[in-house]
Specification:
By secondary structure, the protein is of the alpha+beta class.
């Protein structure tokens, strides 16, 4: 029985971490309930994460279809539409920590990829809804991790809801 518990605990931890990661939130805590004889005691298995926020702008450099972005239309359980690869660059309006600047420079200019929260590529209707075109400039926030083990750098474009899946819903109903 003890060996079964030793094998089962890592599976529970993995499931809890995967569930926490799928929420898309930054900084949430993931808890696993421990059914011990002393009662249920929450055991933290992920988070919390803290971020520093830096303002800036994101300039759209390119909006192109690639084999990979087009191919998502045929992926089982995928969005059901061909997507676009959207590349942009982030320009801070304030000084960034050296490690964040290095992280951005390591990627190179115009190499940041805009994808939906679930890593799908946005489709034509999404681009139109949010006015995403080459040369468009958006106010943006860069979140740089201060503590924890979450994604180290997250950039969000103001007024662009990356978790807006309206295109996949319309492709399923229409």
């Amino acid at each position: 029985m003890r060996s079964m518990n030793i094998l089962f605990l890592p599976l529970l931890l993995l499931a809890a971490v995967a569930n926490a990661a799928s929420t898309g939130s930054m900084g949430g805590d993931a808890y696993l309930m421990n059914n011990s004889s002393s009662g249920e005691v929450p055991v933290m298995v992920g988070g919390p994460c803290e971020y520093e926020i830096y303002n800036g702008t994101a300039t759209i450099c390119s909006v192109t279809q690639t084999n990979e972005s087009i191919g998502q239309a045929e992926v089982a359980g995928g969005p059901g539409y061909a997507g676009y690869e959207v590349r942009y660059e982030f320009t801070p309006s304030e000084e960034l920590p050296v490690w964040v600047s290095d992280y951005l420079n390591q990627s190179g200019n115009c190499s940041l990829l805009l994808q939906l929260c679930n890593s799908w590529y946005p489709g034509q209707a999404f681009l139109e809804k949010y006015n995403i075109t080459e040369g468009a400039v958006f106010q943006a926030r860069l979140s740089a991790i201060r503590s924890g083990t979450c994604t180290p750098v997250v950039i969000e474009l103001e007024d662009v809801d990356r978790c807006d899946y309206f295109e996949s819903e319309s492709s399923l109903t229409g």
